[in-house]
């Protein structure tokens, strides 16, 4: 594991953008699974600016959403809506370069990834409970590939989506499981802010356990963890 501790969120974002650009610059097809959310937001802004000034063949980059939560009466789920807004549209990614994981194709998605040449890079955040992608402590197994989790109205995840989204949650979540993520060629985990310090310490320095799903990422031979000083503040 390579651990990079940056002075601040801006530097973290610069490094994250650099890693994505280095993959893009290899002048071959690259398969990328990049997270949505607040942590990578600035990195994607930097990436968008750089792509306007540097000549990259955008057709070589293919994008995979690593999880999805269905929404009622919507063409796309929660993750794809966020990725379109935060990543695909600002970077000008064409529809044919976006490979969508959803509740209809999740059972064959591991095979599709393999047929496409495997994932070159997975960029993830970490939840305050230690989850990565959609791998929550209460139901994940380190043995899982891509899998489905039903969502019921009484579930905490349903209530969270219902409260934070203008759309009604659907019936399921699908996600890359630990085995799918660990099969990628390179993993990058990013976290910023003091609120992530406690879970970062558990994930990076505690036991590897399904109770802290992100701890399994330490088994990958090419894992880079990028933190700002606040997120790294509890590390030994």
TrEMBL record:
Q: What PROSITE patterns does the record tag this protein with?
A: GLC_GALNAC_ISOMERASE (PS01161)
Signal peptide (from-to) = none
Enzyme class (EC, first level): hydrolase
Q: Which residues form the Glucosamine/galactosamine-6-phosphate isomerase domain?
A: 12-218
A Gene Ontology molecular function term of the record: glucosamine-6-phosphate deaminase activity
Query: Which EC number(s) are documented for this chain?
Result: 3.5.99.6
Which key words are in the record? Carbohydrate metabolism, Hydrolase
Record has Ribosomal protein as a keyword:
no
Q: Which Pfam families match?
A: Glucosamine_iso
Name the chain's protein: Glucosamine-6-phosphate deaminase
